[in-house]
Amino acid sequence: MFSGTGKTTMRSAAWRISLWATLAFACGTMVVFVFLHRFVSQDIQRRSDAWLSGEVAVLGDVAVRTPKDRLYRRVVGEVAELASREVPNKLPSSKGENDSVFFLQTAPDGSLALWVGTGNGAAQLDAVHHLKSTPDAPSDLLVAGFEIPFRVATTSVGDGSRIYLGLSERDELRLLRNLRFRFFLLWLAIVFIGSAIVFLTTRRMLGHVRKITEAASRIGESDLSSRVPVTKRNDEISQLASTLNIMLDRIENSIHQLHTITDSLAHDLRSPLTAVRAKLEMALIKDGGARCEETDGVVAAIEELDRLSEFLNRSLDVAEAKADALRLDRTAINLDSLLRVMVDLYEPSMSEKGLSVKLRSNGPTEILADAALVHRMIANLFDNELKHLPPSSTVTVSLHSVEEVAHLLLEDDGPGFGEELCAHVFERNVKGPKSKGHGLGLAFVEAVVRAHGGSIEASNRHEGGARLKITLPLALESDRRHSRSLALSAH
Fold first, then answer.
1. Domain assignment of residue 442, yes or no
2. How many domains would you assign to the chain?
3. CA dist., res. 338 & res. 105, Å (int)
4. I need a surface site. Which of 203, 215, 396, 464 has the fewest CB within 10 A?
């Protein structure tokens, strides 16, 4: 279950990283193209303006030097026609006419004196008349009937007339359009290849992280002696694995020291308690005929010693569980069968106190857990009900599984949890005002559930009474095979 979750996390992280990297790369290349497009556009326009300025100067010089006779229109017109043919990469019109360049000369009164180009030049003359000024540098000219503007250069002739040479921006726009189209294809190819490289690289890198995560998860669940894999490359991933292994060494040493301390403490405390209990039992046997008051005192002392021993064991177990240091011997357990055994075991005691217990189960439910701890956990739950429920109460135990989780629900119709205790029932030494226990029962239950990767919730029922909801992960097929292999190796 964890590995699957880890894969999903890794895959989404790889996609997320590659997506952001691709987005940044795409935006960066697009910005570069915008500047490149602007530079090329300005350079093409600069070259066009240079050609227009040079040609209009030549035509003006020819117009000044040519006598104003019958050959003037023919000479100047042929020179203008030759100039129009010098336009490089000119896009021909659909009619085969030269509609990309025009030559126009106006008379001193503004009428059309000479025209070279497609049509009669009336539209061009009208557009020239609407120019707000006659700049020295080439400028744009919008002509009616033409979607694409002309770039026009002008010069004056000595007799008061003016010469206009116009060049359509169609060829320039076609070149820029082809440039944009080819860059767009190149941009798509670069972005796709770049995103694939980033994704594969990120996926490979996160694959090493996933292996480290899965190994660390197995170490935390079962064996502290295992270590995460270390790659041969001296990179950040290898350093992370080495750092985790060093940290695991320290954790293993700390847990070993904790076990040593708790074992020594348990031994040092249990030994005198056992010795005192043995002496009390011997005294009880020897003084079998003594007065009833003395016998009752010895029996009460033995019971107090038993309670003290139980308190000691629970305190140590809760302390180890809170420190994630419980020693778990995981095996496949049928929780349904265990609950039926425990209900049969506690039913006489509950009936004696006037309590009834009901079990509702959907059938066999296997979990991978420590059988002894789960047994003690359920025993604590039933003991808790025996101690705190008034007579004529009913305890209902429900068991069912959803997807990969087992749900154990314990409900009763008693007084429920006090408002001030409901949020703290799983803390150590927390108990009700009428409780005679040590406040460790539910703390131990919560510690065992958490050690097995589950969760527990406490609440009050709307109808009255307490509710405890426990969730534990089900045993997967791989867990069952691992449990069987460990059992076989133990034999």
1. yes
2. 3
3. 109
4. 464
The CATH number given to whatever domain includes residue 480 is: 3.30.565.10
Q: Do 13 and 142 fall within a single domain? A: yes
| CATH, residue 151 | 3.30.450
Summarize pLDDT for 7-60 with one digit per residue, the tens.
444 455 777 788 888 888 889 888 988 899 899 888 888 888 888 888 888 888
* DSSP symbols for 361-423: E-S--EEEEEHHHHHHHHHHHHHHHHHHPPTT-EEEEEEEEETTEEEEEEEE-SS---TTTTT
What is the rounded CA–CA span in Å between residue 127 and residue 270? 112
Residue 319 placed within a domain? yes
Cβ atoms within 10 Å of 491's Cβ, excluding its own: 4
Tell whether 422 and 343 lie within a shared domain.
yes
How does pLDDT run across 178-234, given as a tens digit for each residue? 888 999 999 899 888 888 888 888 888 777 777 777 777 766 555 666 777 777 777
436-464: string of b/e by CB count within 10 Å (b at 16+)? ebbbbbbbbbbbbbbbbbbebebeeeeee
